[in-house]
Design goal:
The complex is a heterodimer of chains A (about 240) and B (about 280). Helix content of chain A is about 40%, strand content about 25%. Chain A has 9 helices and 9 strands. The model of chain B has no long low-confidence stretch (mean pLDDT about 85). Chain B is globular. The chains are: A alpha/beta (about 240), B mainly alpha (about 280).
């Protein structure tokens, strides 16, 4: 089966500062992959490069074999902060926007997710707490039938109880062949979902391992991840 | 193409609301000014004519007179909105190339600009029509003017010139959107290339300096290409249309060239703003 994501030799600089260097990454369909790294390691930048939001990088990015921006964007669903909308916009207007702009947006799927997240269509964006806004973003992202989901720290403001419910349900919301790349600080909470782990360190992909391989070494994913930084702290 | 149309419709819908607010504000401004003139101004009182008969004609005159000002306000407001959308990750994630999103965004602003101008023309015609029917002096004045025009046997040149002026206005409106986008894209691309500066104020000052430098450069280029485009057109079209049609040609070329440069810049260098 064709790789859902292929990144080859990507190097990205901004303001004369090297942010990512020689990044190579391949993801297969149907996987849930954690993208881990310290703050400022380049996780968000990598997701922005994949989604075509960051420009002027060297190297190539293909999604489902497509390398043109329009095709890539049609095959991925990226958690977006919805800052393109006025704060007075109602949730139902945001849903209308998604329905018009994205052909793969499934309104009935969104309805199910909305009920699950307990969101009211009549609410305005300004009335949403950070957690509710994040729930809306997750619902909108998964209501699209994409091949690659990019979730950039999606649970930061969501309370622990709801977070657990959402994490446990994620696997039900995606198609079998869809891949999820998720960056999050709650490594323990998402660990049970994961098929693979990708670590960004020293401006590049430092490690890319299957979750089973890590577990077979009698380590949790969090232990493995923290172990990568132990040496650094001693220095 | 379908995605292009869908995004255009969505953008047009959003910008349309602003056009409606502007036309409403224009009407309210004209109304308030007329009421003020009605109670305070002596100029309205004219012999034995009742003041009330002059209310509608003056409402029409003020509405018509405010048209240019409100069109300008709309142009400024939508220029900012267009740039916000160009920079917005929410819009840039739409499944189209960045160049097409930019085109959609600019064209929807521009078509809305024309839409507002049409609303102004239609509203002016309605207000004038009511004044014409309600006030005999307006009716007589208009009929006399039309008779003079008919007697004067206006040539085709006048109609052609009017068309030329309308075209120049349209092309200039488009040029405003294109120039603002060009300044935004080019200055941001240069700032992204320069070493990082922590202060937002310093970044703003750098961008302002860059914008002034780019504007100066644009003026120099304009001075250089103006005779290159207008001279052959003046020669081909003859003396009769000397002032208007070469300018139409010049603005068309400028619009096309700037649109192409902006499409290149937005595709290669101008990033969407990061948002979480």
């Amino acid at each position: 089966m064709e790789n859902v994501l292929e990144i080859k030799d990507v190097t990205y600089k901004k303001n004369q500062k090297l942010i990512l260097k020689d990044v190579n990454l391949t993801l297969q369909p149907g996987k849930i992959v954690a993208l881990l790294g310290e703050n400022g390691a380049g996780k968000t930048t990598l997701m922005r490069i994949i989604s075509g939001m960051a420009k002027n990088y060297r190297g190539s990015v293909k999604i489902d074999g497509f390398d043109k921006d329009a095709e890539k964007k049609a095959h991925l669903s990226f958690t977006d902060g919805l800052t393109g909308f006025n704060d007075s916009t109602k949730i139902k207007a945001v849903v209308d926007f998604y329905e018009v702009v994205y052909q793969d947006f499934d309104k009935s799927e969104f309805e199910q997710l909305r009920r699950f997240m307990k969101l009211d269509l009549e609410m305005r964006l300004s009335q949403l707490s950070r957690g509710m806004r994040e729930k809306l973003i997750i619902a909108l992202t998964f209501a699209r039938k994409a091949d690659l989901y990019l979730l950039d720290e999606p649970f930061g403001g969501i309370d622990a109880m709801a977070r657990k419910k959402i994490i446990n349900s994620i696997i039900l919301w995606k198609n079998d062949n869809a891949t999820i790349l998720i960056s999050d600080h709650f490594v323990n909470e998402i660990a049970s979902l994961l098929d693979e782990v990708v670590i960004i360190k020293d401006q590049t992909i430092y490690a890319h391992k299957s979750a089973d391989e890590i577990r077979s070494n009698h380590e949790t994913i969090e232990q493995y991840y923290e172990g990568l930084y132990d040496g650094d702290e001693e220095d | 193409m379908a995605a292009f149309e869908r995004l255009f419709t969505e953008l047009f819908k959003q910008k349309c609301k602003k056009a409606h607010v502007i036309i409403l504000l224009q009407f309210l401004s004209a109304f308030v000014t007329t009421v003020f003139a009605y109670f305070e101004g002596n100029m309205i009182v004219s012999g034995s004519e009742r003041k009330i008969d002059l209310f509608l004609p003056f409402l029409f005159i003020f509405f018509f007179a405010f048209s240019f000002l409100f069109l300008l306000i709309y142009l400024i407001i939508t220029s900012f909105q267009t740039e916000q959308i160009n920079h917005s990750q929410t819009w840039r994630l739409a499944p189209l190339s960045d160049a097409n999103i930019y085109l959609d965004n600019t064209l929807s602003s521009f078509v809305n600009f024309i839409y507002l101008a049409l609303l102004q023309v239609i509203s002016s015609i309605i207000l004038f029509g009511i004044s014409y029917l309600a006030n005999k002096r307006i009716k007589n004045g208009w009929d006399n003017m039309m008779a003079i025009i008919r007697k004067g046997n206006q040539s085709n040149a006048t109609i052609a010139d009017l068309l030329g002026i309308a075209l120049i206005t349209i092309l200039l409106g488009l040029l405003v959107y294109l120039v603002i986008s060009f300044l935004n894209f080019s200055s941001q691309a240069i700032v992204d290339f320069l070493p990082a500066v922590s202060s937002k104020l310093v970044v703003t000052i750098i961008r302002l300096i860059l914008i002034i430098a780019i504007m100066w450069l644009l003026t120099e280029i304009y001075q250089f290409i103006k005779p290159v485009i207008t001279s052959p057109l003046s020669y081909m079209l003859g003396v009769e249309h000397l002032t208007i049609w070469p300018a139409v040609g010049l603005f068309t070329v400028l619009d096309v060239v700037l649109a192409a440069i902006n499409m290149f810049l937005v595709s290669r260098f101008f990033e969407a703003k990061q948002n979480k």
